[in-house]
TrEMBL record:
Lineage of the organism: Bacteria, Bacillati, Actinomycetota, Actinomycetes, Pseudonocardiales
InterPro entries: Prot_inh_I16_SSI (IPR000691), Subtilisin_inhibitor (IPR023549), Subtilisin_inhibitor-like_sf (IPR036819)
Species of origin: Allokutzneria oryzae
GO function terms (MF aspect): peptidase inhibitor activity
Protein name: Subtilase-type protease inhibitor
Region of interest called Disordered, as start-end residue ranges on this chain: 35-68
Statement: the UniProt record of this protein carries the keyword Disulfide bond: yes
Subunit structure: Homodimer.
Compartments where found: Secreted
Main subcellular localisation: secreted
The Subtilisin inhibitor domain, residue ranges: 97-184
The family this protein is said to belong to: Belongs to the protease inhibitor I16 (SSI) family.
UniProt keywords, alphabetically: Disulfide bond, Protease inhibitor, Secreted, Serine protease inhibitor
Length: 198
């Protein structure tokens, strides 16, 4: 049995299943009933493969310019690499040494009679002996309890005139919060050296 061209034209107007553009009614031929594809529509999957049909107006030509935005997608990773190489590393930015040192008379850290700032690598701040203080801090790796001190002040008197020192800030990125009370100024110089010689 054959279907007339008029019937095929009529069936051609019907909507096919979603995602396919084909006749929804069987078309009889010598190999048996089958769905007959009517035409491919841009954006819909083809019945003969997984690739969507392409528009006739796509204008695909060999050597056609790349779509807008591809250059940006390609250059973005390169830009990120350049930023990582040219900018200072995160470790160098975070591992800073910035300290605030104070000195107070008595057993309490306030009121402070002296207050100085100290930076290392590079050496700076308002500390009067910044270079020597940074040298001793490097020897103790920022541990204020292990400062080499000043051996020239050995044999200090036992007079109790307490002084309290504090240190707050960062040593190579590590938070520092130190407080200690010395028996007198001589002991302070002997044990802390130039660090608390404010």
């Amino acid at each position: 049995m054959r279907t007339s061209s008029a019937a095929v034209s009529h069936l051609d107007l019907a909507d096919g299943p979603p995602g396919f553009d084909c006749l929804p009614y069987p078309f009889f031929h010598r190999d048996g009933p089958s769905l007959v594809p009517r035409r491919e529509i841009p954006g819909r999957p083809s019945v003969f493969g997984s690739e969507p049909a392409r528009s006739r107006n796509a204008g695909e030509k060999s050597g056609a310019p790349a779509p807008e935005g591809i250059g940006m997608r390609i250059s973005l990773p390169i830009a990120l690499i350049l930023v990582a190489v040219l900018s200072p590393s995160a470790e160098a930015t975070v591992a800073r040494t910035e300290l605030t040192l104070t000195l107070a008379k008595g057993e309490k850290p306030f009121p402070a009679v002296k207050k100085r700032s100290l930076t290392c690598d590079p050496v700076g701040g308002t500390h009067p002996f910044a270079r020597q203080a940074c040298r001793d801090l490097k020897r103790s790796d920022g541990d204020f309890r292990r400062l080499p001190g000043d051996p020239r002040h050995s044999g200090c008197p036992r007079d109790y005139w307490p002084v309290t020192v504090t240190a707050r800030g960062f040593w190579k990125g590590r938070p520092i919060a130190f407080k200690h009370t010395y028996g007198n100024d001589c002991t302070r110089n002997a044990e802390s050296g130039p660090v608390f010689r404010l």
